[in-house]
Amino acid sequence: MDALVVREGEHEPSVIDVPEPVPEAGEVLVRTLRVGVDGTDREVLEGGHGEFPAGEEYLVLGHEAVGVVEDSNGTDYEEGDVVVPTVRRPPNGENRYFDRGEPDMAPEGQYHERGIVGAHGFMAEYFTSPAEYLVEIPAEQAPLGFLIEPISITEKALEHAIASRSAFEWHPESAAVLGNGSLGLLTLAMFVHTHPFERTYCVGRRDRPDPTIEIIENLGATYVDSRETPVDELPAEYEGMDLVYEATGYAKHAFQTIEALAPNGVGALLGVPGPWEFEIDGGTLHEELVLHNKALVGSVNSHVSHFEAASDTLGSLPEDFLDSLVTGIHGLDDWERAFADDDTTIKTAVEFAAYEER
Amino acid sequence: MDALVVREGEHEPSVIDVPEPVPEAGEVLVRTLRVGVDGTDREVLEGGHGEFPAGEEYLVLGHEAVGVVEDSNGTDYEEGDVVVPTVRRPPNGENRYFDRGEPDMAPEGQYHERGIVGAHGFMAEYFTSPAEYLVEIPAEQAPLGFLIEPISITEKALEHAIASRSAFEWHPESAAVLGNGSLGLLTLAMFVHTHPFERTYCVGRRDRPDPTIEIIENLGATYVDSRETPVDELPAEYEGMDLVYEATGYAKHAFQTIEALAPNGVGALLGVPGPWEFEIDGGTLHEELVLHNKALVGSVNSHVSHFEAASDTLGSLPEDFLDSLVTGIHGLDDWERAFADDDTTIKTAVEFAAYEER
After folding, report:
1. B301: Cα within 13 Å, side-chain hemisphere
2. 8 Å CB contact of A107 and B276
3. Could you say which of 3.90.180.10, 3.40.640.10, 1.10.10.10, 3.30.750.24 is the CATH number of the domain covering A2-136+318-351?
4. pLDDT for A14-36, tens place per residue?
5. d(CA A66, CA A33)
6. Nearest CA in chain A to B256
7. Where in the numbering of this chain does the Glucose dehydrogenase C-terminal domain appear (chains A, B) (predicted)?
8. pTM confidence score
9. What is the ipTM score, two decimals?
10. What is each CA distance from A103 to B13, B163, B227, B258, B293, in whole angstroms?
11. Homologous superfamily assigned to A152-298
12. A270 appears as a binding residue in the annotation
């Protein structure tokens, strides 16, 4: 079968022929419909993130998948069920994080991530997965089901951020997303439609006209150009933020977030930068965290209940927003365009098969 | 009546004669027993923290008090009840934080702090307080009731830190206290006796023999000399910490805490440093927060329920620990020694009256 992979030593994807997977006991065979492309895929291609499966000279790409059960293989699924796979798998048998249903809390070395770390991804005509790592979604979500994984990342981050504010009465009104990539825009839409904050902001560094700025403003949020208003000046220019969601991986933002927060606010950190030394006013930031009861909460990955919540969320986001977010669905004859990274590309997916209702 | 105050322009306490307070409606008149001395009092004396009451040329010191109801003034209290006052008061009528019973969450400008910011403290023969800001404690706690306020600070910080870990199964085993002052030692004793962590550490910078190191080791905790093992090297030298409690106000510790934590750990920040610029590897710290689901939670002050919890906690701390912690109780003829800040002084209090059971 065809698969989109990155080969050892290369930094561009290739389409190669790989063996069709055979489900083991407890596993389901899934026919892949679509697989989204995101920044992590680009980091994997660049070689800055991830790890090939042991003994393999290539890695099948892709971790944002939606597919249809082709062979339920004796599990509770039925042929034709529309499913989304979670990403982490136990590397050497189970461990306590997987036992608890919280693989997202496993430390490095205690998980593989399909399409990223040590395990093949979903960009192939078929994939297999233990039934417990699949989440069934409504058939009508098949076309955009590849958005459920990124939405689940935000479900988890918000769950943890909100938990950090659960020891007191917290009535957040203002929220800022740092970053206007697809994850930032999905999160902004959640802030407006499913959480909903009264006032929302999205921080980017793009000139108008720009399709992401249009989306931000169509959502009713305020676009902030960080070249004019640095993140730590948000309170002076707009207002202190009850919640800041960092989705840039730009490390200075993590620390500027402390100043961007309103008293009792929380910053959810999602980006994954590499080492970078710089100067901060650490005394003032420390004091600000303490005297105003602020918190920073890092969050990575997500688990089954976050995928289930994400499916509900996807169902309540407006169609016009989703239409403008997804800028391209590309078949295997045209997959290069799914990996384009220009100012008109927001969210793309590679299509392996069209969904046909049975 | 006699009061221990700091006068405008001075940096040492004085004993002066001030008018005896008269309780207003809803207020109780309390005869002061003992008032503890802590680092905040020293910062107030140095002038780096706090603010005089409007129009006053002195500030009555002290915020860690225990007393006996002298005149219940029509409230639900009875003469002879042993009480501890909370610290924050609404500055201009109530505000929503006080309405909710959470004055500790009020931002700057929306609170006074008795003995610190804008309101007289408790270091006088009598004080008044609205009944709602008093917490009744068992009579047998009268001698050490001045420890309830500092314990309440930790009750709140731990409540918030633990809340931040409530979105997943968290089973903390290791905890480190940064700082071997009286708050650090009280917290360490709580980690050992009331929470209890399996392995506890306390980080200081003292040479042996030292009474705080003796207390640490008598509690069964490990003393770590930060001159030999910097905070960010705790995982390499000992283990990653599920919880770090920062009680030094040394700003670099707030950021080193991120590296000191085990995966999924939380750092509770308590210290209040001033501005201080320094370099950090912000990229690595940001990445570490995200990839290992870590959190930093700032915490200041405490409210009534934390004082109630602190009274329970005080009742379960071992007597020998409390005996070694409290190094001096000094009357008004000897108050200077309560403010001594040498390596043999750990926790002191000024005594205004001896407790007599009625």
Report:
1. 27
2. no
3. 3.90.180.10
4. 999 999 999 999 999 999 999 99
5. 6
6. A282
7. 143-352
8. 0.97
9. 0.97
10. 57, 20, 37, 21, 12
11. NAD(P)-binding Rossmann-like Domain (3.40.50.720)
12. yes
